[in-house]
Every structure is written in C-alpha cells, then in structure tokens.
Amino acid sequence: MIIHGARPSPFVRKVIVFAAEKGIEVTVEPAGFGRGAEGYLKGSPFGKIPALEDGDFLLCDSTAIVTYMDALQPGEEMIPAAPKERARTIWYEEFGDTIVQAAGQKIFFNRAVAKRLKREPDLAAADLAEAQEMPKIHDYLESVLVDRDWLVADRFTLADLAVACPLINVGYVSAGLSADRWPRTASWLERVKARPSVAAAMAAEWPMVEPMLA
Ligand SMILES: N[C@@H](CCC(=O)N[C@@H](CS)C(=O)NCC(=O)O)C(=O)O
C-alpha cells in the first residue's frame, strides 16, 4: 500500500503508525499542497493529505483510511468493537482531529512550517494558542487519565494515537506540556511516543522536522 503525504503531518503520522500497529506494510510517497503522484491527485480530490493507494483502490482522509486498515486486518482492532469503547474511541479521534489539531496547528504552523513555505508566521496566534487553548486540552486529558495508562480499553488504541499525533507536533516547538502541572498527561504522551510504531514514525520524520526548527 502507498500512503501519499508528508510524514510530519499529524494525519499522515496517524495512518503510518496505525498501519505499523496492524502489521500492514506501507511505503510513503511525498505529497501535499496539490503536488504528488497520480494516486494522491486522484485519491484526494480536495488536495489534503494523507491519501491511500491500495492497488486500484484510492481513498483520502485519515479516519477513512484507518477504518479501512482496521477492517482489512482483523485481530486486535485499534478501533475496539465493544460498543462503549468503540464510541469513546471515535470521540477521542474526533477530539484529536478537531480540537487538539485546531490549537496545535496554530503553534506548529506558525513556529515551524510558515517560514519553510515562505509565509509570514503569526507568532502572536501561536503564543495565544499555547497560553489559552492548550492548557484546557491538557486539563481535560489530565481529568480522563485517572488510574489508567491508556484512554480506552486499557490498551493502545486509535484514541491514544489520534490525540497524541497533534500533541507530538506541538511538542516539537513548545515546552507547554509541563509534567509538574499535568503529570498524567505528560507521562501518557511519553508512553505513546515510546511505542515502537510511534518511535519509528518519529525517527523517519525527523529529517523533515529538524530543518523546520532551525
Ligand atoms: N480530515 C483530514 C484532514 C487532512 C488535512 O487537513 N491535512 C492537512 C495537512 S496536516 C492538509 O492536507 N493541508 C493542506 C491543505 O489544507 O491544503 C484527515 O483526517 O485526513
């Protein structure tokens, strides 16, 4: 299978790690902003990343892609089957993709990506999101991570992955997640990052991330 996209995108990282957790082999083809191979141009009609190419099956959107992967490879599903766990997992994925990503993007884009795209960064927007939006997200996570290592089902699921992905981007350019103030959230995120699938994805994306931080 081919994943079209840029590895440092939270949505692309989500599908790369998900595939690794499911034992699905993928290659990653660079794509984004309307440029990329045919599988991306045809598979992602609105130009977003990631897109998936599995033979003649083309699909965009990280949520759609992970749903496909989970169903393809039965076993221990990353999207749990039990109704309450499944519903909670979808909530956390939605929370990661929308609320966390919306705040995180203001920080990562303006502190890292903008200058690479030769765009004027809005550093005040990044500072504001770090000061006002991220603490509410950390407070929420701290409140749900009581007496548990993982968000759902006592194991690593899509819930942890989807929430952690935008936080990983924020962590590249912000030290805002204080382990003193949010100890459970900070140690949960370290646990996610220590998973071999996540550690491998972060190592592979580092050559793209490092120049953005210079
Ligand atoms: N809901 C989509 C969101 C994908 C998305 O917004 N990707 C960003 C990169 S992080 C993108 O393609 N941005 C380029 C653009 O909006 O043109 C998903 O889950 O895949």
3D architecture notes:
With about 210 residues, the chain is an alpha+beta fold. The protein has helices at about 10-20, 40-45, 60-70, 85-115, 125-145, 160-175, 185-195, 195-214; strands at about 1-5, 25-30, 50-55, 55-60. The protein folds into two domains: about 1-70, Glutaredoxin (3-Layer(aba) Sandwich); about 85-214, Glutathione S-transferase Yfyf (Class Pi), Chain A, domain 2 (Up-down Bundle). Helix content is about 60%, strand content about 5%. Strands 2-1-3-4 form a four-stranded mixed sheet. A hairpin with a 2-residue loop joins strand 3 (about 50-55) and strand 4 (about 55-60). Helix 1 (about 10-20) runs antiparallel to helix 8 (about 195-214) and helix 4 (about 85-115) packs parallel to helix 6. The mean pLDDT is about 95. The structure holds glutathione. Glutathione (GSH) binds near residues 11, 49, 61, 62 and 97. Glutathione (GSH) binds next to helix 1 and helix 3.
Topology, pairings included?
Elements: E1 2-4, H1 10-22, E2 27-29, H2 38-43, E3 51-54, E4 57-60, H3 62-72, H4 83-116, H5 123-144, H6 158-173, H7 183-194, H8 196-213
Parallel strand pairs: 1-2
Antiparallel strand pairs: 1-3, 3-4
Helix pairs in contact: 1-3, 1-6, 1-8, 4-5, 4-6
The structure holds glutathione.
